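Input for the complex:
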Amino acid sequence: MLGRGLLGLYLSVLVLLPVAALLAQSTHGGTAAFWREVSNPQALAAIELTLAISAIVVIVNAIFGTLIAWVLVRDEFPGKKIVNALIDLPFALPTIVIGLVLLALYGGGSPLGIDVAFTRASIALALLFVTLPFVVRSVQPVLLELDRSMEEAAASLGAGQVTVLRRIVLPALTPAIVSGVALSFARAVGEFGSLVLITGNLPFKTEVGSVYIFGQIQDENLPAAAAVSVVLLLAALLVLGALALVSRWRSQHVL
Amino acid sequence: MSSSKLAARIVALGYLALLLVAPVAMIFYRTFEGGLAPVWKAITEPNAIHAFWLSLEIVAIAVPLNTIFGVGMALLLERGKFRGKLLLGMLIDLPFAISPVVVGLALVLVYGKTGWFGNWLIGHGIQVIFSVPGMVIATAVVSLPFVARETAPVLRELGTDAEQAAATLGASAWQTFWRITLPAIRWGVVYGVVLTTARALGEFGAVSVVSGRIEGQTQTLPLYVQDQFENFNVTGAYTAAVVLALLALGTLVAMNLLTRRTRRRTAV
Amino acid sequence: MAIEALNVSKRFGDFVALQDVSVRVSDGSLTALLGPSGSGKSTLLRIIAGLEIPDGGSVVIDEQDLTSTPARNRGVGFVFQHYAPFKHMTVHDNVAFGLTVRKRPKAEIGARVEELLGLVRLVGLAERYPSQLSGGQLQRMALARALAVQPQVLLLDEPFGALDAQVRGELREWLRHLHEEIHVTTIFVTHDQEEAMEVAEQIVVMNKGRIEQAGTPEQLYESPRNEFVMSFIGPVNRLGDSFLRPHDIQILAEADGSGIEALVRRVVHLGFEVRVELTLPDGRDIWAQVTRETAEQLELKEGQILPVRLPAPRVFAA
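Predicted:
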């Protein structure tokens, strides 16, 4: 069918060929060259920083994201609809603008007197902004569908609020939280635009993987860029792959 | 009103206010702090105007392409009969897992002068990298999955009964798609288009890599923001950022209005 | 148009839906495909419609082999269990659809739709949307839609399965009347034996991908070929390898030497019909079906011991 051919062509031009080229370039000089690029001190520092801060950020997201979802679903207050709409702001706002707005309030010259510019805290701040919606939007539908009668039954059997939360609600929400966390992580390790202005991109201090890659491209050091790219890509894919496997296991064993 | 419920509300709203609302409000404040005159001057700057139109031009090409592709892919996934649907789904979602900078790099490796097709392209006088076509491709890649992801579940939920009925009544495959399937999935498609447009407008990393960031020629509005800021032209940067932020808010409004139509489960 | 399915086979993965099935439906007749779920009746119907392709065998309509012809070219009307309405179109546009895709002139379409809406008694609802109709109305719309293009064959897949009991009854009758008016060869699928007996001229009983028996309702009831058909069509008592119809069991007022004594365990009044649950001297339980009058005459009540005459049992070869 002509349609399938065209669709395949589109997918190849945009995704398949570029990814293949990336893999080819990174393995061009063999595994030795790959390791050399990746274990370069500056590259290593960037990768470690990226993974570490992303991990911290997603944990914070898991907590606050669930809390926010809870308040949006279970609580009532004026303006709730607007707040709910705002959750999608990080998806709608360009990343460069995100960096700029954070800088305006939390950077030099801020009315709050806080200045996180050029610090690692700024990385965390930006990543928290861009990954906010993932856990919230993942948990909300599950909370909405959650059968209240389960909680009421537990309460009538004498379970206190905390117990109900711990034993009834959280287990039901865990898959959604995990899903949101995985998506957050994948997004966080690749984030670029919101970091360029606020972090100062200082090697070994605030330079994340994506910024390092960008620098290498500008220096026309494509093999180095490709090697580190593959590392970041693998990190994201591993997490997403784990998520897919866990979801499949759950749907086969829990139902 | 239990105290824990109140506490939860305060913490949640406080978090959102500090992280999301206050920074955005700050930008609007800062932009108009010095009055409207500097803002007007910044908006009418030729490079700013060029960046704005370039952004729109790229979006005007990338979004329709991704829409057609997205609907086609969704049809393939939900109505096609072949193995490897899982793989196809993963490929379509791949852009979500790749950093925009890496997307840019990968495109340079294929279409750049030292890339796989480099010689062929140069030989035919086609410039992809450091030129608008490359930027269009980069934008299309990063915003690829949305229409497919939004349309596929709608197609699945719709079921095939109506389409089969249309077939027994004599409709061709195209007639069935145009008259029966498409009208039924239209809100899913529209929602996907809104998400695609927002992503495409805001794209920074991939376009940054492939464009060469040449002022007045290959600067989109987001790139213009960075350029202005790095050249200490704060008003220029803020103004362009506000334009983008307004477009983003427009997107939010559209997303929310459509939430009810597509029966997504995040309406509260 | 006579329809013939010859040696049709179909499997879905490991599941065998149809195994070498052959059916003949005469021109202008009203036939039911009857069987439990999984019997293959819907699959067979869909293969006749062209919505599924058989693995083996052929479909012949009006002496033309249409096995490899796609659904849209077969001239069959199909009605789905859940109506398959075009939700974004009005009733008028739904019914007109077949004519619209054939690019008929607007005036012609308008007239035909009006005629059909009159036929299915949905006049005045032309501008409504499917979401505003009841189940019964939706099914009538579906029928009108299928008939609009004057199909040579009308196929209905459990057409009344999703409707309330009362609406079901009404529509069954209505389908019979419709068939008498428009003599289109009609096949419908059902798991409800009462429906099949009431509506169809010919019934094809299917089970596990095979045809058990085909015939008129009377033939199937009086001369079932095997225990499946006998149990599926009409009530039955099973005593070991013997099968007895409950209404053939006679309860006598006085012993006349020909009956055996049975204990009345329970008497259930179901309006005109009365069910009497009995225990035979050898301890086995059966139930008999008698009229209200008979029950009154005998003054049936629990605990009575009455003589009972059993009919000649039916036994089927293994």
